[in-house]
Amino acid sequence: MSGSAGRIALSVARHGVCSRQKVYTGRPSAPLLVQASKICDLTGKKANNGYNVTFSHKRNHKKQYANLQTRMLYWAEGQRWVHMKVCTKAIRTVELKGLQAVAKDNGVDLTKFPYNDMRPQRREWLAAREEVNPPMNKNWMGNSRRMKNPEKLAASKKQQWSRAISQAGWCCLGGSAT
């Protein structure tokens, strides 16, 4: 064997792995990044490949993205506010034709998007449920590590940090007792 083939064969014999292959270690080399798509939900408009052209006529690649806006559009037929990411051209078309017509023209199913239900039955149900308090969040006080048993807290010899500092008389600037 001669040349690079000999070196590769020698590397495989020593290490059991070809030096040109990437070895999977079980961990991703970089954190997984999930980016929101920059595509209009109604029209499907997306980025265009273009150039920045300098004075010397050098051309640098750049993307020209659609002017996307996150909007809640009212869908009268579904009686709901639909959350969508739409381009400004689509917003103008919706104002002209209506959301149902634009979605039908572009083959978009509006039931697949997140929404706020505005049906009268739902609003009545919510109004009736206002009397009932919703369950509190477990971390509603902001400190999930606080002592939750009041009897145990009263019997505890520990003091709260702010009370301990004020009783000790610590000076804020120098750190010495006064």
Automatic annotation (TrEMBL):
InterPro entries reported in the protein's UniProt record: Ribosomal_bL28, Ribosomal_bL28/bL31-like_sf, Ribosomal_bL28_bact-type, Ribosomal_bL28_sf
Looking at the record's lineage, which domain of life comes first?
Eukaryota
Q: Which GO terms describe its cellular component?
A: ribonucleoprotein complex; ribosome
| Protein keywords | Ribonucleoprotein, Ribosomal protein
A GO BP entry is:
translation
- Keyword Ribonucleoprotein in annotation: yes
- The answer to whether keyword Ligase applies is no
- Record GO terms (molecular function): structural constituent of ribosome
Q: Which family does it belong to?
A: Belongs to the bacterial ribosomal protein bL28 family.
Q: Which PANTHER family does this one have?
A: 39S RIBOSOMAL PROTEIN L28, MITOCHONDRIAL (PTHR13528), LARGE RIBOSOMAL SUBUNIT PROTEIN BL28M (PTHR13528:SF2)
The UniProt entry, under HAMAP family, shows: Ribosomal_bL28
Q: What is this protein called?
A: Large ribosomal subunit protein bL28c
Its source organism is: Apatococcus fuscideae
